[in-house]
Amino acid sequence: MRASVYRRNRLFETAVVSMPEPKPGEALLKIRRVGICGSDLHIFQGHLDHRVPQNGTIGHEVLADVVSAPAGSGFTGGDRVVVEPVLFCGNCRACRMGATYLCYNLKVLGVDAPGGMQEYWAVPVDRLLKVPPSLKDDDAALIEPLAVATHDVARAEVKPGDRVLVFGGGPIGCLIALVSRHRGAEVKVSEINPYRVKLLREMGLETIGPGEDPVAIAKAWTAGDGVDVVFEVSGSPDAVRLVTDVVRVWGTVSIIAIHADPVAVNLYPMFGRELTMHGSRLYTRAAWEEAIRLMASGAIAAGPIVSRRIPLEDLQKGMEEALGGGPVMKVLVEMA
User: Fold this and answer.
1) Entry pTM
2) What is the β-pairing status of strands 61-68 and 80-83?
3) Per CATH, which fold does 149-279 belong to?
């Protein structure tokens, strides 16, 4: 079968590999779609070489069909599923606290362990969730990033009437904005890519575009008070420098983006306004279940963020285009 392998030095190649043999408790999946996400771009740039094996297979935003599953697992051949790609020990302090997705021995499928950029994949059945029949494949392939967004918004405790500013209008930033709006918040998204600005506006989101001042706009929007919640999803050091400047007294700063290097943040407002700053990573099972409900009900229409589909053999090109910052939002690798 075909699989994409990571050679390092910004190189992915398609290779012929052996079919996986499911272990006890695992299902064999035939892959339909795999999304390219920001974490994958960090892998491409070498930022996660301490975790991703050379010649490993990435991909954690996965939609697949069950080929076979253990008896009594609740899954049968033909089921459409998504994969919650988190492996945890169950014994460490984080797991005992209930934060299994932050396990001290955490392994993420598609990062630390083989992922879905291959035709067939063997995955523990307890990592699978069924996809409602009403969802199209492209929509179902967005459940994983939507689960990220539902988790992020829940951690930030966004409430009806809140004013929310999102730095970064890529897929996750867009989905955070949509989930926040669904919760009754007023939302603005700061984004410098003209293609993404246009797409966000077409999806009914208010934007702060290139050349505009997010701090000035936030102050004008809130009569000088500052927003209730700001999400940093851009990965830009420039945005990090501004996040504490736009938030009200007792407001919340939520850091979502991966910053590979230390960056400067203005801490005086942390003291002066008694702000709360937290990180938000991955997701709970409840976040997945909420994402599926929101998408299946039509409350969140995420499909427009899919800008193109590519074959597995074009993964290298897809990475380069996504990293280039051109007219692209979400790229899906189409396997079937």
Assistant:
1) 0.96
2) antiparallel
3) Rossmann fold (3.40.50)
